[in-house]
Every structure is written in structure tokens, then in C-alpha cells.
Design brief:
This protein has twelve helices and eleven strands. By secondary structure, the protein is an alpha+beta fold. A hairpin with a 5-residue loop joins strand 4 and strand 5. The two termini are 31 Å apart.
């Protein structure tokens, strides 16, 4: 494993950002987007607009601003909150991903969503607020503007390889969104992302991700974080929501789920890889965490994929 918990978790959850559509508009316009059971986002390429959840106060978005929704709620983008919105499902389809309203000269945006593993994806979903507004004039503005400009150029030019280039740029944009969120530690819900944003406990988190099979002791982790054992344990729990060694066990189980799902490696080998002295010790830990034995978990996966 790596010493980068951020990359580990995005890889484990199969987080894949996908560009799904673009809109150009002119004059007065408004579009209502239906609830989605996935993370959705948009970035303003040109002009400005208002965005709001129905029944709530609108937020103003300027060029290079980004909006991220992590909850399934109806959302409206518009030139003026007083304009009656058109349902997005009447504008966009699998065949029609580029939409123009009016003369299309005043405003442009790109939208997308993030695909996640249906089970392990909760690791990402649960640490994001329902709504994020990242301002284009933030400290990361230059990076965001470059990515947005490149995405817009790829969409407009349709050069060879533009589909792959757009996919890679969209993935980078999502990573930058999460990095920007990391800089607002006080607003991040308790969990792994908040712990990673906390410079005092992040060193211990990196050690556990680098060597999840190691028999880590609280004293070692506390020393890496330059704190006493008691102070470290309290601080880690405050940030992550669980004790350090409880976090380690939970991370091992996420790795075990991937191993059980993705290949046919014997359970005994998985147990050894994750640092357990015997298959029975691993099986007991796995059942306590998931409610199923490793064998039953793997059998259930085979049943659901038939």
C-alpha cells in the first residue's frame, strides 16, 4: 500500500468523475435538475448564474466557480431566481448532451457526476457536506481555471483523443475539489477526510495505510504524531470518530472486501496479507465488522453477479 490515504480511498471506492453534459444560454433562463443518487458537480465556464435548492436561498456563481452536490435533492440553475425553470430531463438525454438556450452567448457550464462503488463508495459520500460552493477566486483558482479552460477546449475542438483527455481532466478536477475541501477542516464531517486534514494525526494515518498488516501499537502511532499516548488517542478519535486501532481494523476489512470481491485468493492468504496470525482470527474480525464470514461474503457476491 502507499503512504497516501487520500489516493488509497479514492482507488478503493473506484471514484471516477465523468463529464455528462454542457449548457450554453442567453437571456432569461432556468433549468431544474432532478435528484441524483450520486455526487454531481458543475463548473461555470463563462458568465454567471444563480443556483439553489428549491425552497432555499440562492447562491451566486461566477466564472470558474464550482458547485458540488452530495445529496439527492432537486437543484435549479438560472439567470434569475424569478424565472420559472424547465425540467432538465426535457433538455438532456443520452443522445443530447450539449444544450443551448436562447442565443447561448451569455453563459456556459459543464456538468458531471462521480461514479462510486455501490458499497465502498460510502467512504467518500459520508465525508462530504450536502453542498459545496468552491469560489473561482480561491487560493486554488489558477488550477481550477486551467482545468476548466482545458475541459472547455476539449469539448469545443473534438480533437482525436478528446474523450480520454476530458475524462482525465474531469478526474483531476474532482481531486482538486476534494483538496480544496481539505483546506476547510472545521467544516468537514468527522471521519477519515477530517483526520487527513488534521496535520497532527495525519502522520499516523499515513503509517497505517502504508503498512496495514503491521501490528501497530498506540505508542508507535502517538510518537509519529509527536503526542503522548493519551493525547493522541483523544485527538484521533475527535477527528476520525473512532479510536486509532479501530480505524486500522476497519481499513483492513475494506481491503479484505476488495480482495474477496476482486479475485479468488484463498481466505488464509488474505488473512496473512492483512497481518492476522490465523484464518480464524481474521474470519472472526471480518464477521464482527461486516456481519458475515469471509466465505459467506464471497458466496453472496457470486450470487448477486449471476
Amino acid at each position: 500500500m502507499s503512504r497516501d490515504p487520500f489516493s488509497d480511498i479514492l482507488t478503493l471506492t473506484n471514484a471516477e468523475a465523468i463529464l455528462t453534459g454542457s449548457l450554453r444560454a442567453g437571456g432569461r433562463w432556468a433549468v431544474r435538475f432532478p435528484p441524483r443518487d450520486r455526487i454531481t458537480f458543475f463548473t461555470v465556464v463563462k458568465g454567471n448564474c444563480w443556483g439553489y435548492f428549491e425552497g432555499e436561498e440562492p447562491t451566486h456563481f461566477a466564472t470558474a466557480d464550482i458547485g458540488v452536490l452530495a445529496v439527492p435533492r432537486t437543484f435549479v440553475l438560472c439567470s434569475d431566481p424569478r424565472v420559472s425553470p424547465v425540467d432538465a430531463t426535457t433538455l438532456f438525454s443520452l443522445e443530447r448532451t450539449k444544450v443551448e438556450l436562447g442565443d447561448g452567448k451569455d453563459f456556459a457550464y459543464l456538468g458531471g457526476h462521480v461514479m462510486l462503488d455501490p458499497v465502498r463508495g460510502r467512504l467518500v459520500m459520508d465525508v462530504l457536506p450536502p453542498w459545496m460552493h468552491i469560489v473561482g477566486s480561491s487560493p486554488q483558482a489558477n488550477i481550477f481555471r486551467w482545468l476548466v479552460d482545458q475541459l472547455a477546449a476539449e469539448q469545443a475542438a473534438e480533437q482525436p483523443g478528446s474523450e480520454l483527455a476530458s475524462a482525465q481532466l474531469t478526474q483531476l478536477l474532482f481531486i482538486q475539489i476534494l483538496r480544496a475541501h481539505l483546506r476547510t477542516a472545521d467544516m468537514i464531517p468527522v471521519g477519515w477526510l477530517r483526520a487527513l486534514a488534521d496535520s497532527r494525526v495525519a502522520p499516523a494515518l499515513r503509517l497505517m495505510h502504508a503498512e496495514p498488516s503491521r501490528d501497530w501499537h498506540l505508542d508507535e502511532l502517538a510518537k509519529a504524531s509527536a503526542m503522548s499516548r493519551t493525547t493522541f488517542a483523544l485527538h484521533f478519535r475527535t477527528a476520525a470518530g473512532v479510536a486509532p486501532l479501530t480505524y486500522l481494523t476497519a481499513w483492513r476489512m475494506r481491503l479484505a472486501e476488495r480482495a474477496l470481491r476482486d479475485d479468488t485468493t484463498p481466505v488464509a492468504v488474505i488473512a496473512q496479507t492483512l497481518g492476522y496470525s490465523s484464518e480464524s482470527a481474521f474470519s472472526n474480525a471480518f464477521k464482527r465488522e461486516t456481519g458475515k464470514s469471509p466465505t459467506a461474503y464471497r458466496s453472496g457476491l457470486k450470487t448477486t453477479t449471476r
